[in-house]
Amino acid sequence: MKIAVLPGDGIGTEIVDEAVKVLEVLDLKVELEFADVGGMAYDKHGHPLPEATLKLAKEADAILFGAVGDWKYDKLERQFRPEQAILGLRRNLGLFANFRPAICYEQLTHASSLKPELVAGLDILIIRELTGDIYFGQPRGRRAAPDGAFQGAEEAFDTMRYARPEIERIAHVAFQAARKRNRKVTSVDKANVLETFQFWKDVVTEVGQQYADVKLDHMYVDNAAMQLVKSPKSFDVVVTGNMFGDILSDEAAMLTGSIGMLPSASLNAANQGLYEPSHGSAPDIAGKGVANPLATILSAAMMLRFSLNQPAAADRIESAVKDVLSQGLRTADIWSEGTRKVGTREMGDAVVAAITTKTITKS
Ligand code: NAD
């Protein structure tokens, strides 16, 4: 098995280092190959997703990704901006299904901005369609408005579109995921206003007829945003389009206390996947050794489970993360009175130690 490791920019290298340490202690038969991506790849090779990186990503069974981006690249032409590397990987590998679990660990209930009773035991899964919708729809651009009240004025426009097979495949992913959980899917749309999302709702309903054992309900995105903070535990699996998913998954992230805790997976039809923390490159704390590496470590666990068929190894990582939280270790983003503040490396070392201790105890 080969894993392409793409640390990227900002805190990317710091957090990926810790995930690599954890993978290495598991002593799996995996080969790790590193490559440049994002702003640092642009600086070195003139492109955020160099040919060699894309080739490696395509050949690998899975990709472990850190983060890309920095304000200093904001003035570059769009095609050279670091974030284009992620879009390029998604497009080239057909990574259409984005899994964003939002789990509130018992030990971190107080780190959430919501009341503890609302988030204690929270375990929801947001499945976001990742390769369609208004983010990729053509045409798009700037022009003189061809009609309307502002005819002739400069305007910008994008195109929201979804084809039936695109909706069908993400709906199947959601129903199948729900079967392994609490058998409930909430499809989020804006069918009351948008034609694209009336179609989305119709197609998801049709697919749902093949999953009589899974309860399906539909919710408008504005209501979903409200319900996520009002009664987050009422959700199980949420499935939605690219743009709504982008927004709702970050909202769900904050329910759990810190974006530094949240892993994500983006899969294609062959189960090849890109695994990355839900957060960005955090330039404000880069190089300080304070970033929380747990989202990346948990992303590595998702990678072992979904793409590398190593569920036992994934369990060992997840259980080690719970152990270090129970020991009271916290990076600054999840620190609270009475717990011990640690840096990125110390947190990674503690996860490695928790895995090693359990291995020794078992044998
Ligand atoms: P961000 O997620 O990088 O940071 C938001 C806030 O969360 C910051 O205060 C940061 O310090 C904090 N934070 C993030 N990760 C953390 C961690 N592991 N531990 C502790 N604190 C953490 O979002 P942003 O500031 O809006 O964006 C910064 C850069 O990242 C931009 O260039 C943006 O385009 C890019 N970005 C990249 C990705 C990606 O690589 N997938 C995703 C989102 C944003």
Automatic annotation (TrEMBL):
Family (UniProt): Belongs to the isocitrate and isopropylmalate dehydrogenases family. LeuB type 1 subfamily.
Gene Ontology molecular function terms on file: 3-isopropylmalate dehydrogenase activity
Reaction(s) catalysed by this chain's protein: (2R,3S)-3-isopropylmalate + NAD(+) = 4-methyl-2-oxopentanoate + CO2 + NADH
Protein name: 3-isopropylmalate dehydrogenase
Subunit structure: Homodimer.
InterPro entries for this protein: IsoCit/isopropylmalate_DH_CS, IsoPropMal-DH-like_dom, Isopropylmalate_DH
Cofactor(s), by name: Mg(2+); Mn(2+)
EC number(s) on file: 1.1.1.85
Gene designation per UniProt: leuB
